[in-house]
Amino acid sequence: MTKKLLSLLLAVVLVFSMASVAVISASAALDSNGRYVPSEGITETNRYYFAMPKYWYSEYTDTAGIYWWGGSDACGAVDGSGGTTSWPGYKAQVSDVEDVYYVDCPADVTTIIWNNFVNGGQDKEDPIYTVAVQSQNVPSEFYCDGDSDLYGTEFFDAMQASFEGDKTALGDFANNFFESDYGFAFKMDNMIFVIDPELTSENFEGKLTYVGDWYFYFGEGWYGTYPTKEASEAAGTLKNVNDQPTTLPDIPVTPGETTTTTAATVPAPSPDATSAVGSDATPDTPGQGGTDNGAIPTGDVSTAVILFVILALASGAIVFARKKFN
């Protein structure tokens, strides 16, 4: 009888052990606070910072979100491709500077969308519909000359000269610069994306979408258009996130007309920036406050399924053991 009971327990333990590994794997892209961390096996990442505008916060959210539909740990796209995480994607990590968030994003992701981690749903009469805000598609691979109005030919010529020399002008961003197939370029690792409220527009669904650009980030909220703080200050482009407006400026908003800085040299399959909340998306249930919005974080659905399988397998193991040893 003792041997029979021991065999039964071992069978159940084996089932639970195998399932536990699956549960951990299903939730590998979230930390204990429900924020994104790269899945196991992803070895190359870029850290992207985001200065979230004060006017993006509301009773529905107190955090930034990030969404991408291609590359490693991809969220689910409206065409069914990508992963299982629906809009608004992942919660970003919180930095030690107020309103600054960051994500260690897989290096093979070429386009991202920043948002305030609110799913506005489809009901235009619901107040949460307009509370949900997002950036346009943001290129996250690299910039070459001509990809952004902030970084022109003169900038790239100066940076290339330094790159081929002592690299002094490149500061802590020397490893960002490289020769690409499209010319001299820099990647966005450790840079910060800042919204320009004057480029705000309405999309075809009546929501505000926001355009911004990448800046070299020096920490403590400081950023500029040159790789060193001193050069940015000399150029008059050194700014701090605290300088950003606390409310959306009263500017004309033209429906359907948005100026973007999407890099022409980095083509990628791209849904419209608003398609993440389109009719094919799986809307989360709006929360009554905080950052979760009633959303099911990535892996939770899979975890529920796995737990169901655990119980089924465990029950099967028990029945099998009883039949075998009785």
Describe this structure in words.
This protein has helices spanning 2-26, 128-131, 153-163, 229-235, 300-325; strands spanning 45-51, 65-67, 90-91, 93-94, 100-106, 111-115, 134-135, 138-139, 143-144, 177-180, 183-186, 191-202, 208-219, 222-224, 239-240. With 326 residues, the protein is α+β, with helices and mostly antiparallel strands. The protein folds into 2 domains: 1-27 and 299-326; 43-297, no CATH class. The strands form 3 sheets. Strands 1, 4, 5, 7, 12, 13, 14 and 15 form an 8-stranded mixed sheet that branches. A hairpin with a 2-residue loop joins strand 13 (208-219) and strand 14 (222-224). It is globular.
Q: Supply the number of helical segments.
A: 5
Query: Structural class, from helix and strand content?
Result: alpha+beta
Distance between the termini: 9 Å
Number of strands: 15
Can you give the mean pLDDT?
A: 77
Order of helices and strands: HEEEEEEHEEEHEEEEEHEH
Report the helical percentage: 10-25%
- Parts with pLDDT < 50 across at least 5 consecutive residues: 8-28, 253-311, 317-325
What is the domain tally? 2
What's the shape?
Answer: globular
Most strands sheet: 8 strands, mixed
- Beta-strand content estimate: 15-25%
Indicate the radius of gyration in whole angstroms.
24 Å
